[in-house]
Amino acid sequence: MTHNIEQLDRLDPLAACREQFALPENTIYLDGNSLGALPKASAARVHEVVSHQWGNDLISAWNKHSWIELPLTVGDKIAPLLGAAAGQVVVTDSISINLYKLLVTALNMQPGRNTVVSEQGNFPTDLYMVQGIEALLGSQRCELNSVPTEELDDALDENVAVLMLTHVNFRSGRIHDMQRLTRLAQDKGILVIWDLAHSTGAVPLNLDACNVDFAVGCGYKYLNGGPGAPAFIYAAARHHAQIKQPLSGWMGHANPFAFSDNYEPAAGVRQFLTGTPSIIAMAALDAALDVFADVDMQAVRNKSIELTELFLSLKKDHACLFDLTLQSPADPAVRGSQLSFSHPDAYAICQALIGHGVIPDFRAPDIVRFGFTPLYLRYSDIAQAIDILATIMDHALYRDSKYNQRATVT
Amino acid sequence: MTHNIEQLDRLDPLAACREQFALPENTIYLDGNSLGALPKASAARVHEVVSHQWGNDLISAWNKHSWIELPLTVGDKIAPLLGAAAGQVVVTDSISINLYKLLVTALNMQPGRNTVVSEQGNFPTDLYMVQGIEALLGSQRCELNSVPTEELDDALDENVAVLMLTHVNFRSGRIHDMQRLTRLAQDKGILVIWDLAHSTGAVPLNLDACNVDFAVGCGYKYLNGGPGAPAFIYAAARHHAQIKQPLSGWMGHANPFAFSDNYEPAAGVRQFLTGTPSIIAMAALDAALDVFADVDMQAVRNKSIELTELFLSLKKDHACLFDLTLQSPADPAVRGSQLSFSHPDAYAICQALIGHGVIPDFRAPDIVRFGFTPLYLRYSDIAQAIDILATIMDHALYRDSKYNQRATVT
């Protein structure tokens, strides 16, 4: 199979987006699903917020620059990427903490039901947060049932309070059918929480149309909000009156500056706020979202599929790559913006790739994971990455001892 | 009483610290207890982290720049300011969320006890977080008893699980006797959580010597870590084996990158981590703490007392200031680094001061609060602030309608 790579780049409707990122030279970055690249606008905004807003305006910046409203205004910028009407998204804390708020909220809405169904191999923190609630409340009120993926449908019965799933699996990239599973669960009276960490900014989403109850998502992967950027919560408007979340801090109070001794929740998604958010971190995310302002998510999805299909197609040209076994779905329709391959030497292969300017990541125990970010990757980057991978595998360069020393890897 | 203001500034051993801050011109900033001023090192560090570490090193920065260790390394930088040995402080999340972790941890350690004693007029979020736990667990397991300050001693009995107090009151600036109250509580088998929001970086602390159990503190007030900077947790080493906190996220796992389905807490204070922290926010705080590296906290305290005493002394020279009634303790030994005055027109007076380049803050319903930050305030600033305040009060400038329009105030 032959490809006119240059032509693909020339005709790419998203080609201009790359200019909005500050990318290191001589690097092909295939890990934007772990930490998105730096948008130039974020660097500029952080400088503005630190040096001028904080430095010059000090405390008055909270009003003057509407810092106090950022969790909601940035939330409303994310909403279109989720297929969500305004007023249903708030930017706050981390996915882990936001799941805690939503899980307890949902359990409170389901008296007489105690089970949280999830799947084995979900991103671990999602399971850990349920385990934390189970340890605190006891299994009468919260019991995690994480089942193999193929048993999910059968696990949904009238004892189940909550179905909590990650839309795109972090390891394989497999996409769940959000609409089908949401409806299946809701038909049994189950509330559904979707983790959109590997979806938001990568695949088109339709939370409102799918009648989703709640969701969380990540600011630092495909949204490019910076390392540890704040996460977000989506809560369908129909549930706002029933929210009762346990992390009832002053920023979620109906009137925080009344300094009353008794908690009274703010209306809507604002009540999911807890403490004072980092404005610098929030501003970096806010600016990063501007990259999406003129971007059609279907165009992102189309290019994402083309990039992954190109990778797979070129891989077939190299016999030395046959030992890298695809662990992602072969059908791009049910695959997120990543490709994962298993190999016994996955860790060393990752290190060798990094040593040669191609950045994937390793996911224990044996996965090399490539993330494909259509906003700043070119088709020619994919071709070059395959060439480098083939060189590494063909000459077994990954066997060099320097690629086999384990360090903490994120 | 006369003062040689110039001489006070000339002889000030902390005078050089002011140079380490980027301060706006023509502004006297008396609100560093709400949002600390910008350290020049923080601006430089944020630029470095965004443009070089994130921008160039991308995902590899987590190891290359030890981002993954920042919660602990920054915690160990804070520890000396707390009178705490290393390994007991971790930087994470907000005070509100950290209180939740500690309250549940402490309640778990106190089977058969359910009461959390605090005081009325404590910073509201502290009370709200207990209320959130009470609503979740029921009053059999958690019941808030917030009493008037003078009834605190009597409220401490064998039913009490936790005493949760703020060391320096946000409204009045009154300092609790940490050593006496900790001992009094512990004599009844009560665990003690101190909120050090208005203490850390302002008054010398001796958590280890006072045998404190747990504490939380703020990164964005006297530590100057930036708006919404991450907060910290102190947990005495003797309790580390018993920690069981409910927000059991992957960053607090013993081996986060094993991606196992079951939560297993990390050793020590690391298990208080939950989600992925904002590295940009953490870096700003990290750099801000370097200002304290060569600073003696007793020198900070001495200057703080001198600044507040100077303010009170100069205030006495102006009959027009007599209506501003001191609500802080008159004895500087039991007063933090602030002075609060009540006045029926407190809001408008604050606005008029801001209009004239002096920044205090307003605390509902009727408090003008002045914060005194010895690292960047001069004695001459205090004298000038009093002159401006006297002009405003003498000519009732605060009655101008433009100073009477309410906005959100932090």
Largest protein-protein interface: A-B, 94 and 94 residues
Share in β-strands of chain A? 5-15%
In DSSP terms (H or I, runs of 4 or more residues), the helix count of chain A works out at: 12
What is the rounded Rg of chain A?
22 Å
Number of strands of chain A: 15
At the fourth CATH level, what is the homologous superfamily of the largest domain in chain A?
Type I PLP-dependent aspartate aminotransferase-like (Major domain)
Structural class of chain A: alpha/beta
Query: Which geometry of chain A do the CA atoms define?
Result: globular
Order of helices and strands of chain A: HEEEHHHEHEHEHEHEEEHHEEHEEEH
Overall pLDDT confidence of chain A: 96
CATH topology term of the largest domain in chain A: Aspartate Aminotransferase, domain 2
Which features does this protein show?
14% strand; Aspartate Aminotransferase, domain 1; 12 helices; alpha/beta; four-stranded antiparallel sheet; 410 residues; Aspartate Aminotransferase, domain 2; homodimer; seven-stranded mixed sheet
Description:
The structure is a homodimer of 410-residue chains. Chain A has helices at 5-11, 40-57, 61-64, 70-82, 95-108, 124-137, 152-155, 178-187, 279-289, 297-315, 346-355, 379-394, and strands spanning 21-22, 28-29, 38-39, 89-91, 115-119, 143-147, 160-166, 191-195, 214-217, 232-235, 325-326, 338-342, 358-359, 361-363, 367-371. Chain A is an alpha/beta fold and 410 residues long. Chain A folds into two domains: 5-30 and 296-403, Aspartate Aminotransferase, domain 1 (Alpha-Beta Complex); 45-292, Aspartate Aminotransferase, domain 2, CATH 3.40.640. In chain A, the strands form four sheets. In chain A, strands 4-10-9-8-7-5-6 form a seven-stranded mixed sheet, with helices on both faces. Chain A has a four-stranded antiparallel sheet with strand order 11-12-15-14. In chain A, strands 1-3 form a two-stranded antiparallel ribbon. In chain A, strand 14 (361-363) and strand 15 form a beta hairpin. In chain A, helix 2 runs antiparallel to helix 9 and helix 4 (70-82) packs parallel to helix 9. The longest helix of chain A is centred in the last third of the chain and has 19 residues, at 297-315. Chain A is globular, with a radius of gyration of 22 Å. Chains A and B meet through helix 2, helix 3, helix 5, helix 6 and helix 9 of A and helix 2, helix 3, helix 5, helix 6 and helix 9 of B.
